[in-house]
Amino acid sequence: MAPRRTNKQAIVDVANRLIAERGVGDLTFQALADTLGVTKQAVLYWYPSKVALARDLVLPALEGEANALKAAVGFATGPADGVGRFARALIGYHLPNLPRFRLVYLAGQVDREVQQLMMQGEDLAEVHRITSAGYAALEACLVKGGIAEPRRTAVAVHMAGIGLITMVALGAAIEDPLSHRTEALIASLVALLTGAAGLAPL
C-alpha cells in the first residue's frame, strides 16, 4: 500500500479539529500524524516547529474574530448599540470553541513556543494589524457618536469581553460552571460597559 500524503491545509484542518475535541494540550505532532495516517516526519516536513503551526492556527482565528466584530458593528444604530454588538460578537465567536480561545489568548502565557509567535517581528505585526482592524470598527462607531477616547474605549470593551470568556473557560476546564447563566452575564457586562462609557445602557 502506498503511503498517505498530506499538505499544510490538511494538517491545519486536523489540528483545529483536535484542539476542538481534545484541547491544546493534546495537540502534538504525533497526534497529528496518527490522525492523518502519516508518519510524524511527514507532518514535520510541512511544519518543522510548533511556532510555524501555531502561526497558521492563531492568525486565522484572530482574523475570524476581527471579521465577526466588523460585521456585527456594521449594523450598529449608535454607540451603545455598537458596544453591545461588539461585545456580543466577540463572546459569541469564542464561546463555541473554548479550546481555540485558549490557544489564541492563553497559550502564549504558558507555552514558550507559542510565546515566540506572539513576540516575533512580522508575526507580531500581523497580530497587531488584525486586532487593530477589529478595534477600528467600534472606534468608527464611537467617533460618530462623539465618544471621547474611542480607540481606548474599543480596546477596553474587547478586554472586558476576553475577561468574561476567560472565566467561562476556566469554569469549564475545572468542571465548575459559573453560578450565573452566561447570557445573563453578557447582558450585565454590556449594561456595565455602555453605562461606564457614558452611553445609554441597552
- The proportion of residues forming helix, as a percent range, comes to over 70%
**What is the mean predicted local confidence, pLDDT?**
88
- SS-based structural class? mainly alpha
| Strand tally | 0
Low-confidence stretches: none
So how many helices?
Answer: 10
Q: Which percent band covers the strand fraction?
A: under 5%
Q: How many strands, which pairing sense, and closed or not: the largest β-sheet?
A: none
Shape: globular
Cα radius of gyration in angstroms: 19 Å
Task: Describe, in short, the structure shown.
With 202 residues, the chain is mainly alpha-helical. Helix content is 76%, strand content 0%.
What topology does this entry show?
Elements: H1 8-22, H2 29-36, H3 40-46, H4 50-73, H5 79-94, H6 98-110, H7 112-119, H8 121-144, H9 150-173, H10 182-196
